[in-house]
Structures are given as structure tokens and as C-alpha cells.
Amino acid sequence: MLGLAVGSFLNVVIWRVPRGESVVHPPSACPRCSHPIRSKDNVPVMSWLLLRGRCRDCEAPISWRYPLVELTTGIVFALIALLGPDWTTPLYLYGAAIAIALTLIDIDVHRLPDRIVLPSYPVVLVLLVLASWGADDWPAMLRAVIGGAALLLAYFLMVLAYPAGMGLGDVKLAGIIGAYLAWAGWGQFAVGAFAAFILGGAYSVGLLLARKANRKSGVPFGPWMIAGALLGLLCGTSLWSAYTGLFT
């Protein structure tokens, strides 16, 4: 239920933040008829189904992406809760929420807004301290700080070397992703950091082969950074052990 509610709010964030609008005022309204959405029509997923995907007042179609974001956030929150609950749960719930919002915003406008990324630094820092305290694992906190700084620096150097290949939004997001991955472990950090480039590169090659892009086409990299981080968190330990096992 929390995930569904957060997903409903993320829909507002995804639409308004790239446009520089407030996420709290004015209340949500139909973009065609401007009629404010009634409370009974603002229930995640269910309202969209009951309205058959249309505005109650003007019958303008409502994108299927709204209930999909709500449902996805609900499912992801439920899966995270199944892993706990413990002191890491708030850390991963927050990470999941901003990951969903940033992925869709980057796909839509090819930007990772500072209004989401920069405030996430102090929030993630506090949640990392809470998780480290709860797990009594302060070396993990030190790894997170080193990993976040290292990945931030690596992306910054890549931008300096080839400014056209990456945006500053990717650089800023790298620090947060690096902290998450390193807190989990150095194996997760290594796999998650490199997986972003492997996944993003494979997608770009696929677009070139399908002739849906050329070498000068811009491809949002934020979603692949997030996908790589997810792969690192879920499979980093086993993949890194398999890789290092090749040399032992």
C-alpha cells in the first residue's frame, strides 16, 4: 500500500519536475479540461481501472503509464519488505523510488534533474548511517563513502575526456549509485559499475543494427546506470566470485 501511494506521487514528480513545477501545488488536474482530479479518482491503479483509462469529465485518455508506475512501485516496495524488514529497508525503499522517477524522466527528457539528485545525497547519507548503525557494520559506511567518491570522480574524468559522451547529471548520480553499491560490498560495486557500460553499450549497438539510431544519436545513460546498479546489488557477489575464480 505504501508503494502504491508513493508510485502515485512519483507520477507527479515525473511530470512536473522536468518542467520546473511544484510537486505539491496546484492539485493534479486533467491536462485537457483542467478539471481537478477528485479524491475518489485518485486511488492508485483502481481509479484508472474504474474510469477505464479516461477522464471522468472530458473522457480524455489517461496514459497507461500512470497505473504501471504505481503498480511497479508497489511491487518493488513489497519485494524489498520481503528481504527484511531491517535497518536497510528505508535505504532501499528510497533508492527504489528515486530510481523509478529518474529512469522515466531521463527517458522522457534526457536529463537527470538536480532537484532529485542533489537532495538525495544528504538523504542517502543519513539512511546509510542508520543502516550501518542497525547492522553494526561501520566498515560498510566507510566503503560507501569511498565508493561514492570514487565513482563520482571516475564519471567526472570521463566527462572531461569526452564531454559529448555523457551529461553532468550522470556524474552527479554516479556518487549516489557508488555509495549504494560499495555499502553492499566491493564485488557489488565492481559489477554494478561496469554493468552500466555493458548494458548501455549493448542497447546502443542494438539500435545501430536496427538502424533506429546513428553514432551521433543521444541515448539516455541514467537508466543503464540504474539497471547496472540493480544487477550489481542482486548478483554482484556471485558474478564477482565467478570472475575472480578464473584467476585462482
UniProtKB/TrEMBL annotation:
Its EC number is 2.1.1.-, 3.4.23.43. It catalyses: Typically cleaves a -Gly-|-Phe- bond to release an N-terminal, basic peptide of 5-8 residues from type IV prepilin, and then N-methylates the new N-terminal amino group, the methyl donor being S-adenosyl-L-methionine. The keyword Secreted does not apply. It holds the Pfam family A24_N_bact. One of its GO terms (biological process) is signal peptide processing. Its main location: membrane. PANTHER family: PREPILIN LEADER PEPTIDASE_N-METHYLTRANSFERASE-RELATED, TYPE 4 PREPILIN-LIKE PROTEINS LEADER PEPTIDE-PROCESSING ENZYME. Belongs to the peptidase A24 family. This is Prepilin leader peptidase/N-methyltransferase.
